[in-house]
Design a protein that fits this description.
It is an enzyme of class 6 (ligase). This protein is an alpha/beta fold. The chain is built from 17 helices and 20 strands.
């Protein structure tokens, strides 16, 4: 009898895992508590994979030999606890897919900058002519690609939720960009639990693998003090010169890995802001470790186009630049966005707060922000933080209203920045929906 694999959640990762499981001869069942989108339902039907939606039939699920869980389902969900109490392994799609691939895995995590760095590296590897796939939190499902494509390399963006379901999976190059408080609601509001989750990216590394990490990050540096491994370490910094890894000195980026040395001027980077210096250093080190040609590394860092919904310039209206940074769902992301602004800012902020400490932004807000538009169902915490600090602070309960108010407050040669520092689920389906609505309303002005 074929082993039974149950997939919980029928989004990109779940359906991908189902396709791979079927290709490997498992008895596959997919269960989604919500409604499955037409795109994925059609795929399940075409592959003749058994599925249900709108419910979880426990008798069918608890008969599994192993369960692949969507990263969106919390580990503390009653069904997951029941599976674990019965000794049924619960893993992530990445863990499952990794068993069936011999490709080199370049894995990126961090509280911020993951998507930019992942896409930057994918761009670099493609430019270098490598046969590379893009997966994890971006691109297509890793499992689906492993089932039907034949890539030699994968660049993977990994969230803490994906890492939590990974046990035997091994990165060849692991990149840890930064750790700041985020998703603490999923980690018992204990920062160390979240830190431990991020550090799972280095589990199973061997001495022939590379760990690329930001040594300016205090949390990462503290963790590294207790870490003893033979893995190759490549730190990066914008504050100090290093013996190996990557650093910024004055305006020059230098990467020095295993005698592989590259320099380039900061002004030649395609993306502005100090956070993108970090992202570029991490990408450049990974490219060097892979032995990519120096000119391909330099070119890719200077012509990379950036990420939708991340400091995305929308349009200028009456001399006012509108910028969509809807992907900024935590304080740290918004800090980087404000840090990179050079003109006075009208800041659109708000949504579902994940335990934000807005005081971190006070110094930047004092210098850069002339007005705030609070976009959310409950804006009390934002008012408490910024009333009296900023001359104009108003409320909006829709994107249309937020854009109109910001347009009224801003003047020529100023910026309207949507950088919410919060999740989107109070008024929008997702951060993409929030960013798309922003762009649409700006174009309607």
């Amino acid at each position: 009898m074929a082993e039974r694999i149950v997939i919980l959640g029928a989004g990109e990762s779940g359906v991908g895992a189902a396709v791979l499981a079927q290709a490997k001869g498992f008895d596959v069942f997919v269960s989604d508590l919500g409604k499955i989108s037409d795109k994925y339902k059609k795929a399940l039907q075409e592959y003749k994979i058994d599925f249900e939606e709108g419910e979880h039939s426990e008798d069918k699920i608890l008969s599994a030999n192993e369960v692949v869980k969507s990263p969106g389902i919390p580990d503390k969900a009653p069904l997951i606890l029941k599976l674990k109490s019965k000794g049924i392994p619960v893993i992530s799609e990445i863990e499952f897919a990794g068993r069936y691939s011999k490709a080199k895995m370049i894995c990126i995590t961090g509280s911020n900058g993951k998507t930019t760095t992942t896409l930057m590296l994918y761009h670099m590897l493609k430019k270098a002519g490598l046969n590379v796939g893009l997966a994890g939190n971006v691109g297509e499902s890793l499992a689906w690609q492993v089932a039907e494509k034949n890539f030699n390399y994968y660049v993977l963006e990994l969230s803490s939720f994906q890492l939590d379901g990974m046990y035997q999976f091994k990165a060849d190059i692991a990149i840890l960009l930064n750790i700041t408080p985020d998703h603490l609601d999923r980690y018992d509001y204990k920062m160390q639990n979240y830190v431990d989750s991020k550090f799972r990216i280095i589990q199973n590394l061997t001495e022939s693998d590379a760990f690329v990490y930001c040594c300016d990050d205090e949390i990462i540096s503290k963790e590294m003090e207790n870490w003893n491994s033979k893995v190759q370490l490549f730190p990066f910094s914008v504050k100090k010169e290093l013996k190996t890894g990557g650093w910024l000195e004055k305006e020059l980026l230098t990467i020095d890995c295993n005698e592989y040395k590259i320099s380039m001027d900061k002004k030649d980077l395609s993306l502005p802001g100090i956070h993108n210096v970090y992202n570029s250093l991490a990408s450049g080190i990974a490219g060097s470790v892979l032995g990519i040609r120096k000119d391909a590394i330099r070119e890719s860092l200077s012509d990379f186009q950036g990420v939708n919904h991340r400091l995305e310039k929308v349009v200028k209206v009456r001399g006012i630049q509108f910028i969509n940074d809807s992907k900024a769902t935590n304080i740290n992301s918004t800090w980087y966005a404000l840090e990179s602004m050079e003109e006075p800012v009208v800041w659109i902020v708000g949504g579902v707060d994940k335990g934000n400490d807005y005081s971190v932004l006070f110094d930047l807000v004092d210098v850069k922000v002339k007005g705030i538009v609070c976009l959310g169902v409950d804006n009390e915490k934002i008012h408490k933080a910024f009333d009296g600090r900023v001359k104009t602070i108003v409320d909006a309960d829709s994107m249309e209203k937020a854009v109109k108010l910001s347009y009224e407050i801003a003047n020529k040669d100023e910026v309207v920045l949507l950088s919410p520092a919060c999740a989107s689920f109070d008024l929008f389906k997702s951060y993409e929906d929030r960013g798309d609505q922003f762009k649409e309303e700006v174009r309607n002005l």
